[in-house]
Amino acid sequence: MFAPHIKRRALSSSERLLSFKAVLSGVEWQSLLELMERLNLNVVYASLHIKEGVGLEAIVTIDYTNSPLPLHMLVDSLKRRVKVLKLFKRGFEDAASEVFPLTVNGERAVLVTSEVLKWLITGIRARFGSAGEAMQYYMGFDVGFNLGRMHMDIGRSLRLKGPIEVLEKVTAPLFACMGYGIMRVMRARLQEPYVQIGVARCFECELAPKGTRPYSQLVRGYMAGLVTALLGRQMRAYEVLCIAKGDEICVFDVYS
């Protein structure tokens, strides 16, 4: 089973929305994820960043349409798990106005549709061939490397114990929250460093034409750069299972 992950949509027509600002420790972050999974809460919007001297600050809007709890009990459950700084009376409207533009750890972020992604992934390969594949791999590596350093900073603020715990408790939930896929660390060792990562619903490989070989370049590079940053050692990644060739999930072996 994959670990609890954040479900989210960019927009929601539901009127049962709750928006709040909270400060989280590592234990509280995990507790919040588990609560959302257990109560079937859908995240409409989430903004996370490290606030110096405070910790990890989150602004979150959730759709509680399918939650078994009424609103007042849901708010009480949240307050027992995290330090809620503010509840937004007008929900997503107030929360969105406070956090625009979209940011991740203080950096500007934008949403990209599947049609745009399809051109960026399959279109570039069709036009540039193997050169396009190499470009996507190294683009993914640079993105993963820089996010890996950011995730280590978040991990230190949450007092996590090491790179594998950061990978499991910071990277994997954020990977799902950003829409990349549902990520799980399957195997890991620090001596003779090796990490095996499974990704369900990998966005890149879902857009791929069906074939007989693994398809990923962008996410494969991302995994290599990510683990390089987390372990402080040059790593490379290979996709050994891929949904584009009929496997149930995509699996990446990352080693030095």
Mean pLDDT: 85
- Any idea what the radius of gyration is? 19 Å
Distance between the termini: 27 Å
CATH topology of the largest domain: Muramoyl-pentapeptide Carboxypeptidase, domain 2
CATH architecture label of the largest domain: 2-Layer Sandwich
Any idea how many domains? 2
Question: Oligomer, anyone?
Answer: single chain
Main β-sheet, spatial strand arrangement? 2-3-1-4
Strand residue content: 15-25%
Would you tell me the structural class of the helices and strands?
Answer: alpha+beta
Task: Report what the structure shows.
- The chain is of the alpha+beta class and 256 residues long.
- The protein has two domains: 17-108, Alpha-Beta Plaits; 114-255, Muramoyl-pentapeptide Carboxypeptidase, domain 2 (2-Layer Sandwich).
- Helix content is 42%, strand content 25%.
- The chain has helices at 26-38, 71-81, 92-99, 114-128, 130-157, 163-177, 203-206, 218-231; strands at 17-24, 42-51, 55-63, 83-87, 103-104, 107-108, 182-189, 194-200, 236-241, 250-255.
- The strands form three sheets. Strands 2-3-1-4 form a four-stranded antiparallel sheet, with helices on both faces.
- Strand 9 and strand 10 form a beta hairpin.
- Helix 4 (114-128) packs across helix 5.
- The two termini are 27 Å apart.
